[in-house]
Amino acid sequence: MTGVSFVVPVHNGAACVGETIASILAQSDGRPMEIIVVEDGSRDNSAAVLESMTAVCPLTVISGPGRGAAAAVNAGVRIARYPIICQVDQDVVLEPGWLTALVACLSNPAVAAAQGRYIVDGNASFFARITGLDLEQRYAHLEEHPNHVCTGNTAYRASALHAVGLLDDSMGYGYDNDLSYRLQAAGYRLAFCRAARSRHRWREGWTGYLAQQYGFGYGRLDVVARHPQRWMGDAVSPVSMMAHPLIMAMALCLLGAGGLLATSLPWSNTLVTAGLALVLVLAIERTVTGIRLWKRFGDSAALAFPLVHLARDVAWVAAVVVWTYRRVLRRGVKPEHSMMPRAAAR
Asked: pTM, whole model, 2 decimals?
């Protein structure tokens, strides 16, 4: 059987990495397997947790370069021994059969990467379920061979990764999009496997949720700057989703202009009305989507889509403003601009 190397980057992951490693160990199906954990400068007790685990688990723990998640993954990939590399994030828990299902997708030599499906964790907190439900909605339309696979829940052909130069470690969120596009440009295909299921422990609370959404929006702009032809999105982030920050930005401009001109121009109310109309359009679209997901999964968190996603859209607009400001000043791309690490547990 084909050997598999698991690569798990860890930064402030003490609260969750143990469950992640346990789920990886449970994937054992008789094939050669190694687990490489890249401890990337955590400020919590991740290092101590991993050290205690090495006494009872076959782990290889190395120190990361401290330059973000992509650089940490690359460090693990470079020392991996086997021809298939499964990249699993520190906050992802694999369901039984995940490995077997994904490796089957790579039996086709044309396929360079196969992504599993994140499922909604019904026991997660409110905002984590919101994120999971949103992703489920977009996964529902994915074909077997999409044009984008996410890292964190994915099996790669090692030779393909090395052929395209690994991940771009100057990027934060969006490095998986960039890698997907480069793999396809090199002639490889990608695969989406619904049978390979896992649970993602998304960030919690308003602050965590909006910080992550800001990062998603910022990272998408870095991707479009590298791949302008992808300005309309891809299979995971379709044009309907890409339109949200543009419409919200127009709405905020109209509302702001209407407010500033309220005392000097009689038609300022028209600007405010137009701005509110655009916000209403976004809210209606999110309401319809939320109701559909509520009926499908029975999770009432989906009914909060209009409120939560309007706030998300504002976070994306903020990302556009900051990204544009840095571009005008010709500041370089840095992973931390979009991918802010989880806070160390206290």
From this structure: 0.92
